[in-house]
Amino acid sequence: MTNKDEVEWVIRLGDGSSTVLEPEPQPKHVVMRLWDCLKGLAIRFVTRMWMFLKKAWDLGVDDPRKLIHGLKLGVALMFVSLFYYMRPLYDGVGGSAIWAVMTVVLVFEYTVGGTLYKCLNRIFATFLAGFLALGIHWIASHSGHRFEPYIMGISIFVLASATTFSKFIPVVKARFEYGCTIFILTYSLVSLSGYRVDHLLNVAHERVSTIIIGTCLCIITSMFIYPIWAGSELHHLIPRNMDKIAKSLDCCVAYYFGLDDDESMKSLQSYKCALNSKASEETMANFARWEPPHGNFNFRHPWTNYLKIGMSSRRCAYCIETLSSCLDSKNDQVPEPIKTHLESGCMNLCTSSSNLIRELAIVVSTMTRSRKINMAVEDMKNAVLEIQNDLKSLPDLLIQPHEQKDKNKAVSSDIIVMPLIEVIPLVSFASLLIEIASRIEEDMVKTVQELAESAKFKQAEDEVKPKHNQTIDKIVSDEENMTALQRV
Amino acid sequence: MTNKDEVEWVIRLGDGSSTVLEPEPQPKHVVMRLWDCLKGLAIRFVTRMWMFLKKAWDLGVDDPRKLIHGLKLGVALMFVSLFYYMRPLYDGVGGSAIWAVMTVVLVFEYTVGGTLYKCLNRIFATFLAGFLALGIHWIASHSGHRFEPYIMGISIFVLASATTFSKFIPVVKARFEYGCTIFILTYSLVSLSGYRVDHLLNVAHERVSTIIIGTCLCIITSMFIYPIWAGSELHHLIPRNMDKIAKSLDCCVAYYFGLDDDESMKSLQSYKCALNSKASEETMANFARWEPPHGNFNFRHPWTNYLKIGMSSRRCAYCIETLSSCLDSKNDQVPEPIKTHLESGCMNLCTSSSNLIRELAIVVSTMTRSRKINMAVEDMKNAVLEIQNDLKSLPDLLIQPHEQKDKNKAVSSDIIVMPLIEVIPLVSFASLLIEIASRIEEDMVKTVQELAESAKFKQAEDEVKPKHNQTIDKIVSDEENMTALQRV
């Protein structure tokens, strides 16, 4: 098998057998292999970079506001660099202009609320820590040179430990976490500088003034250039999630009764957004607290009520999650007549429930009460009654076919009730739908009404009123007729 | 009504009527009111402070590690202050020793993984940004004094915008968010300093060396003084949540059949911990990636598998949430004989399910495979079969009482099936239990097995093996008998 010009090496062993030594791979091969390896690595690297860039591009196209946020930070940083580039300002604020740059980089957040939270935390914590450090430095310097480092050291240790620990307390964590960090930082810096630098007040003054410059710049950029309000985000997220839940519910029931199309399978899973949005809802509500009045939102807009609505949406989503597992299997067991018997009831309940959810979502997003809500609740209650009646008449259906078959015989020995076990998946499907309806009525409607009251939502436009008046007129005239009749 | 020694002022008006001037409230009253007001404020303040301190105290007693974390930061900060207090070191590292203090305050996190994540991000981002800034500064300084500020300004704008935008990409957000911030910060600082400071390399060198001092101190303190590993936390959180789910399931079923005590009502809600722990699980898994091997965890321990188990636990918790709403109402409607008929089946299924969950939790927490799992799965499957049989025999129970009553008559006209609607709550309760069992089998067992394989869990101790051998021996001897028989 070897070429004629290749040398073959054979080793003859002690026992008479011989072994052919395989020729070593040619150096050309090694180079080639190395080349292939490198080429593979390069291709992999380029592919990964390409994937990364594509992902970034998709993200930018999907939500351009994220790109705009990046540009805004760039603008703010450019502006603050001016303080450094322009000599007069530089000489004024001194080398600590660097603090302004740091402030911009560390404080600038995606939402206005986030930026304000960090700005205000930073300013107050810096002031508080600065004054405290100056005070303790004064005490320390008056208690003799020997004790000074001990006093400062112990005060740093105690304050840093206590502040770090207090970050674990939920209220502090939600509102002042960043402030705690800045407090420790400023206290350490000022008190350490106090030990070395003689013009301590200058240091404190410079740091505070540059921080104020930085924070002002951040607040202006984030509030006046294409602002993204945490409150508005929350205000849009909640009804969006509610719509998704309504869509999932529709798809789920349609799929169960075989009325689905390809598109519905995709939106079947959309309730999962509501399941996983707890953390972001809470962050937004926390940030929204710090925001000034904007758009339709007043100063003390009840953001916590949005969290309650979010919670009630999630409670519905839990049920839908359980409902969706009814779709996997067991579906085919259910006898067709029984399925047909309950189909219209289930479809009605599903339609009225999802309509109610959508109406509630409209109430939240338009901030306007709606008279349709009461009607939708009534519709849903009627649908529940209908499905309960269907379930009540189910036993007849379970027996009837056999009665008809054995018309001429005595029924006593021939009754074979259709096995209940086959009906159970459908029955539990229906009772899950009823449970969802009750959660919508008890939780979601209530929490939306609470929000409508505490946020003073606009009254519904009087589209229904004329009709209502007509009804009243009719009732009045009916009553007049009645009294006329009684008089007769 | 006025006392004799009080003066009454009367104004006689133009129209002849008169008005008695009310005596003004005594100054003593105003002071008293102010005093009361102040006292109220003070009491409120003291009460709130007291509540806050009590909350903090409870938190510290509940989890002393949080207190220890605070003390650790204090220790690290004390140590780093030494660099500032001791003159030789201070002269060596210069005024930028302040960076070491900043590093400690900003980088020190609760878990080792969190600290390492921030440290490594900080070091790499500082290096990368420093070199990039030096490079671009070199280019800028060679392209003439006129273009220099423009090149630097544009580069800051572009890099800051791009880096801020890239923080929104999920992979970057999870692993390099802090690094991105530090990258922008360092790049701005170095390139701005480069424009003013002549000894740029010195600045860069000082900053890098102080940051390394700070990070090393942080890593040492967090890894060697009472370390809290994110990996261990995750490793304990997952089975703890599983146990809570098992407990909730037990309580739920016991409560439904009226076997509950006061204590069980409390632990009924404990499944909610599992519902809400998604965010913290993900954070811990992210931090755990950065941790070196410790305890039983190797370098590439499959932390993502823990997230999968967490997800499967949550899927069970969703079902239990739906199950728990069966407890609120409708419970009393179910006729007692039907309830008794299904009680043992439900209790068995619940016990076997919660046993299986507890076994799986033990597997996860001890990192040892268990032969009991297969037996527990079999138990659970048998319990499902049992309950399905109970459900199958339910129709007989629904009709029987009436057949017995009307023994002597023809049944045809007298069959009144017990209304199915009354049974539905119990039936859907049972089918939810079956659904939970199927989720445990399909999701939880599978994800735990995946973890066991990828983390190479220890084999079970051979407690069951002898029995197994006996069985094999028996089979062999049976086979021998068979062949003996065949031979005959």
Automatic annotation (TrEMBL), chains A, B:
UniProt-recorded name of the protein: Aluminum-activated malate transporter
Superkingdom of the source species: Eukaryota
First-listed, main subcellular location of the protein, grouped into a coarse class: membrane
Protein family membership: Belongs to the aromatic acid exporter (TC 2.A.85) family.
Keywords of the record: Ion channel, Ion transport, Membrane, Transmembrane, Transmembrane helix, Transport
Gene Ontology biological process terms from the UniProt entry: malate transport; monoatomic ion transmembrane transport
One Pfam match: ALMT
GO cellular component annotations of the record: membrane
Membrane topology, record value: Multi-pass membrane protein
Subcellular location(s) of the protein: Membrane
Membrane-spanning parts: 67-86, 92-112, 119-138, 150-169, 208-230
